[in-house]
Every structure is written in structure tokens, then in C-alpha cells.
């Protein structure tokens, strides 16, 4: 069963696998790492333009290490989960400074770097260095849980351990690099979330979920927990010339290092209102969901004649139509600016 499973996957990959994704041009650690990080939580088609822009601007790990974090974040705007971009920058610096610009070659060593988990470390070491280790990204989890009917939510430790054990048990002895890509491709193109193409699947004869007609049970769903809703007011100041004031957030925490608007409580806004150059005006509310809570945002617009008409704030910057690409913006700030600048 063990060799048969991997053989079938590899034979399928040779004919039907994806061989022309931008990060497959050279299977070296830097592009593989960047693509793996971008592909966490994000679809391939969305990632491709981001990946191409990122590689054009930072073609090597050393170029990324030398870059300003602000610029890295600005190229990440829209991909979300900004901790990923901050960790990329940190890791690039560690590799440049302590590893002479060369990536560690084993999964164990790669795991020591910020933002690189077991599956990403496995993908880099298997694809680039042929290390015989498993990966378990979202696509592979789906395939393994269905073929072997491993129930339970993969975010729970016990289920994750079963999935890892099975993923390791079916590893081939040769062509680990191709096998790793093959498993990702199988999950991304055949064993997709809804309506998998079981007729075209190389392992359909062995698939327990298919045999039991219970594909939709795998992988198990995340147990539902209701998230609390918090609310905040964002103060948006705009000049006659169309410049909008931003404030850079502290480096750590939510939207760390990104540009947003100063946040206020209702009491703070009430106290500030008599001192504002014009009456504040409410814009349409926005809702932004984080992993653990929802944030209800009430943007308040204050229009002024020119930049000097309002006292300066810490870490302020002014964005306009001409320079909006230059800032790493959190998603709500991006939406508010789009509304105001059209
Ligand atoms: S047979 Fe269907 S459910 Fe089973 S692994 Fe293949 S595509 Fe996925």
C-alpha cells in the first residue's frame, strides 16, 4: 500500500501536475520559501501577481534583508496576515547575518526560523534538498484525511498527530521532491474542498472517504465558537487637496507596522470635537474579522483646508492618489481610502 500510494501519486504528477508556476522555475529555497508563506491562507491565483512583484523587488534573501520593513509590508498589502511579512523580513535578516545568506538544509534547522512551521520547513527541505520528510499544508491535509478517513479537526493536536503520522508513513523513498509537489497539486486541483474530482484521482481505489460516501466529513470542521465583537472609532482627516492622514501602528500587535488611522473611544472623540477645525462626519461602518474577534469600525471624517490646520500626531504620514502604493495599509484603511479617493 505504502509504495503503491506514492507511486500512483507520482505517476499522476508526471502527466497532470503543475510544472509552470512562477516559483517552480528554480527549485531553490528562497522562491520556494516566499511562495510557501504566501500560499498559507491564500489561493494560488491570488498569490501569483504578489509573488512576481515581490521577487522583482527582492530577488534574493539578502535583498529582502536589506529592505525597509515598510516596503515589505507595502508589497504585502491585500494578502492579509501581516505577521507573515514581518517574519519573512526577520528570517531574511537571520539568514543573511548568521547563515552567510544560505538557508539551512534540514527541516529541523529550518524550524528554528521565525514564521517557518513544520510543514513549510518540510516543503523547503523536501523540495530543495530532497530530505525525506512529510508536509501537511491545507491541501495535503485534505487528501490524507480523506484517503485514510481521519476524522476530527486538523487544528486539534490529536488529529494533527494522526495526519502527520500517516503523511510520514506513505512517503516514498525516492523522488521526495516531486512527491511533495505532487501531493500539494493533488489537493489543489483534484481533491478540492467542494466537489472533488474523484473520477480523475490517482488514489481513488484506496480512498476510504470515497468508499464510505462520506467525503464531506473530511477534514473535520473547526468546532464553532462565537467570536466577540469589539468596536472602535477611526479618525480620518482629509485636506481640500485630497491628502489623507495616516498613523503607523506600533511594530507588534494587530496590524503591526502597517498604516491605519488613529483610533479613539467615543469619550475621546467627544472631548476632541470642539477643538476640530470642522464638524466630524460619520462614514459608512466597516466590519473586519480577526481569528478571535470581529472589529466594528466607525470611521469619522474631518475635512480641513491644508495639512498645517491640525496638530501633528506620532508616526503620521499623508497619503494621496499619487503615493497610495507606497504604504503598507491595513485592509479597513485601504477600503476607507478607496472610498474617499475614488
Ligand atoms: S478519491 Fe476523491 S476524496 Fe478521495 S482523495 Fe481522491 S479526490 Fe479526494
Task: Specify the overall morphology.
Answer: elongated
Query: Major β-sheet, in short?
Result: 5 strands, mixed
Our count of domains comes out at 2
H and E order: HHHHHHHHHHHHEEEEHEEEEH
Q: Strand share of the residues? A: 5-15%
Give the radius of gyration: 24 Å
Oligomer: single chain
- The N- and C-terminal alpha carbons lie at a distance of 59 Å
Please give the share of residues in helix: 40-55%
How many beta strands in the DSSP annotation?
A: 8
Helix/strand class: alpha+beta
Low-confidence stretches: none
Q: Could you please say which CATH topology of the largest domain applies here?
A: Endonuclease III, domain 1
Task: Give the overall pLDDT as a whole number.
Answer: 94
Question: CATH superfamily membership of the largest domain, which one?
Answer: Hypothetical protein, domain 2
The name of the CATH architecture of the largest domain is: Orthogonal Bundle
Count of DSSP helices?
14
